[in-house]
């Protein structure tokens, strides 16, 4: 792979060398959040931080793509998520940029016709494990989830192995996004 098609991405203290902009993720419903976190720590997962995230999604005319503005403490991040590639693990193009002023960004997006249509609030505990970013989420209105993500294409089997090692059955794995789950309530 040449340098034009690679990116070095740093997220939650984990370095990824990846095809530009591809994120791979999978989530599962958690029956017992506390037990999952204990197992993750025993396997070597390192807690990075806890944070409250407020995700505002904008109507971009496609249900298979997303534009999200995330507030996390004093940090704001604007993220574009492209169409999902068909697979057991959710893989999609993703580009992020920090923004200085979230409310001003909402005004700019509104002025160009991109209006908020959904807000998702969650408390997330972020862990690092074997090159993966692991989020233990409590999503308002949906419950507890484990989300494992990485950048690049060779991480699918690693994600599935971690679910297995944590004792999470395949029936608890969900392909839907939090937006999809919230919309189907």
Tell me what you see in this structure.
- By secondary structure, the protein is an alpha+beta fold.
- The chain has a single domain (3-183), classed as Hypothetical Protein Pfu-838710-001.
- It has helices spanning 33-43, 102-111, 156-165, 178-183, and strands spanning 6-11, 14-19, 22-29, 46-58, 66-72, 75-85, 90-99, 116-129, 132-139, 143-151, 173-174.
- The strands form 2 sheets. Strands 3-7-6-5-4-8-9-10 form an 8-stranded antiparallel beta barrel. It has a two-stranded antiparallel sheet with strand order 1-2.
- β4 (46-58) and β5 form a beta hairpin.
- 24% of the residues are buried.
**Share of residues in helices:** 10-25%
Please report which band the strand proportion falls in: under 5%, 5-15%, 15-25%, 25-35%, 35-45% or over 45%.
over 45%
Residue runs with pLDDT of under 50 for 5 or more positions: 1-20
Total DSSP helices: 4
CATH class: Mainly Beta
* Overall strand count: 11
The CATH topology is given as Hypothetical Protein Pfu-838710-001
CATH fourth-tier homologous superfamily: Hypothetical Protein Pfu-838710-001
Structural classification: alpha+beta
Overall pLDDT, averaged?
Answer: 85
Order of helices and strands: EEEHEEEEHEEEHEH
Q: How far from one another are the termini?
A: 43 Å
Number of domain modules: 1
Biggest sheet features: 8 strands, antiparallel, barrel
CATH architecture: Beta Barrel
What's the arrangement of strands in the largest beta sheet? 3-7-6-5-4-8-9-10
What gyration radius follows from the Cα positions, in whole Å? 16 Å
* Overall spatial form: globular
């Amino acid at each position: 792979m040449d340098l034009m098609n690679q990116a070095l991405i740093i997220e939650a203290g984990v370095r990824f060398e990846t095809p530009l902009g591809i994120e791979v993720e999978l989530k599962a419903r958690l029956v017992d959040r506390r037990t999952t976190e204990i197992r993750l720590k025993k396997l070597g997962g390192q807690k990075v931080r806890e944070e409250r995230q407020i995700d505002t999604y904008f109507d971009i005319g496609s249900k298979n793509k997303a534009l999200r503005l995330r507030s996390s403490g004093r940090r704001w991040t604007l993220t574009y998520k492209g169409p999902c590639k068909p697979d057991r693990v959710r893989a999609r193009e993703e580009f992020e940029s920090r923004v200085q002023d979230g409310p001003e960004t909402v005004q700019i997006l509104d002025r160009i016709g991109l209006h908020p249509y959904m807000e998702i609030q969650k408390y997330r505990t972020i862990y690092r494990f074997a090159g993966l970013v692991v989020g233990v989420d409590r999503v308002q209105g949906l419950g507890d989830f484990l989300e494992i993500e990485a950048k690049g294409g060779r991480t699918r089997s690693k994600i599935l192995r971690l679910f297995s090692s944590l004792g999470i059955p395949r029936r608890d794995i969900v392909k839907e996004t939090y937006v999809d789950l919230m919309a189907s309530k």
